[in-house]
Amino acid sequence: VNPIPTVSIAQDQTICNGSSSTLSATGSPSGGTYLWSNGTLGATNTVSPSLSNPTQSQQFAYNVIYTLNGCPSLADTGLVIVNPVPTVSIPATSSVCSGSSVAISSTVNLPGGSYLWSTGETTSSINVNPTTNTVYTVSYTLNGCSSSSANGNVVVNAIPTVTTTNATICNGQTASVQATGSPASGGTYAWSTGSTSNSISVNPTSSTQYTVTYTVNNCPSNPATANVTVNPIPTITISDVTICGGLSTTLNPVVTPAGGNYAWSNGSTGTEITVSPSSTTTYTL
User: Rounded to a whole number, what is the largest CA-CA distance in the chain?
Assistant: First the structure.
């Protein structure tokens, strides 16, 4: 009468989907043969079970029977727990204005895991402020299974510049001021008047400043100022004069403000004129 042998599997295994696991059995007394439920012979059994649902963990059972001297043991069962491999994604391309920061957020298909960015950070999203175009990488691990890395390129856009022209007008006139942005193409203008063209026509009643910004790739320039100086219209007062024939008189105008140029109808450019008309005459300044 031969005794019934015994067999035991060392321990259950946990693997990630797509990986392999080796189960080891030990029969007692030694010298027998092993037969696994998947047809494998021998004390070890390497298996690669695959999840039917790639987002849910699943157990796979493998039995082994140990036979010695024609007597089979009771079967022992080894479990292989297969965990899903998570996925993580981030925007392929993001943009930021030079000197500013931008948030990069990751998206995963299975919650509860841990993150590792190329910056060393371990949160689901990070804020970065690169000075040049930079690629950032993140990986995600859940139940010991790591995703493939996701890469995102952050493009750094330069801050544009804008310059303006100034203008001087007389009260009641219209001035045209112009803005020039750099780089020259692809930008938009925004004036304090609400206009979005590169030049504006204005007719202020007093000296006024107008501001404009120039935006390229969502990056606004520092504001530039266009100054429109409004000069008042000067006034002239000349008193009528009565003289006797053959005499002369001096016409002395009163002007406000002083300091301008004079143009008389007789061609004189002085501040006052002396005339000797032979008949009643009108002089215009």
Answer: 169
